[in-house]
Amino acid sequence: MPLVVPGIQSEGGKDIDTWTTKLMGKTLGDGHTETTFAKQDLPKEHRVLQPDTMFTQDFKPDRLNVHVDESGTVKNVRYG
């Protein structure tokens, strides 16, 4: 069961629908194509999380977390 704290939202966030639409199902690369999104166009505060990698559990509401699978395809996008 997730911890619920009033005023803090770990799912969603500002523009989450826009980022989800832009990134889901694409890989991250150097430029834009039909199947690739350019890394340099991600927000300044972001991190790319790969399966089985360690990452901090600190909460930063403005940080975009981009979860990718083993092949580098974006599977989930959220703030926190």
UniProtKB/TrEMBL annotation:
InterPro entries registered for this protein in UniProt: Prot_inh_I78
UniProt name for this protein: Proteinase inhibitor I78
